Amino acid sequence: MPVVWKQQLATGNDLIDLDHKYLIALFNSVELALSKPENLKFLPIFFRQLVDYTREHFEREEKIQLKIRYPYYADHKIEHQNIVDHLETIYSKIHEVVGVGDAMASPDEIHAKLDAEIISLAREWVIEHLVKTDSKMAQFLRKYPEDLS
């Protein structure tokens, strides 16, 4: 089931919110790749994009946090690193499981090994991080212009 952007996820910073919307779209692409056997070949590509853009987003978000002297910056940065590490681990597993060309695993095998990890990622990243952690940051961001970068 795709993740949908809701206004409750807004942080009050245009750059961060645009990043979050794009990250949700990337995550939905990953789910789309898992949804049909003929799409599985795209899973490593979509997931790599998700990992790379997440890393870029976290760097941008952390720069903004430093500008506003966000008091929970250190904890937030650690959480970011944990999420990136988790994404990299899943990406490695995707590469192992999906394979390439003739060595590609069956769709059932791929789903059995990856679905739970991807769903767990959605909960951890979208629900825990965007809703809880970034909403705490939003309280501080709202004191600044929405276009602060």
Describe the structure.
The chain has 4 helices and no strands. It is mainly alpha-helical and 149 residues long. The protein has a single domain (7-141), classed as Four Helix Bundle (Hemerythrin (Met), subunit A). Helix content is 72%, strand content 0%. The chain has helices at 14-35, 43-67, 73-98, 107-141. The protein is elongated and about 50 Å long.
Topology:
Layout: H1 14-35, H2 43-67, H3 73-98, H4 107-141
Helix pairs in contact: 1-2, 1-4, 2-3, 3-4
Which class of secondary structure composition applies to the elements?
A: mainly alpha
CATH architecture descriptor? Up-down Bundle
Biggest beta sheet summary: none
The N- and C-terminal alpha carbons lie at a distance of 32 Å
Q: Counting H and I runs of at least 4 residues, what is the number of helices?
A: 4
Helix/strand order: HHHH
What percentage of the residues does DSSP assign to strands (E)? under 5%
What features would you highlight for this structure?
149 residues, mainly alpha, Four Helix Bundle (Hemerythrin (Met), subunit A), 4 helices, 72% helix
Condensed summary:
The chain is mainly alpha-helical and 149 residues long. Helices cover 72% and strands 0% of the residues.
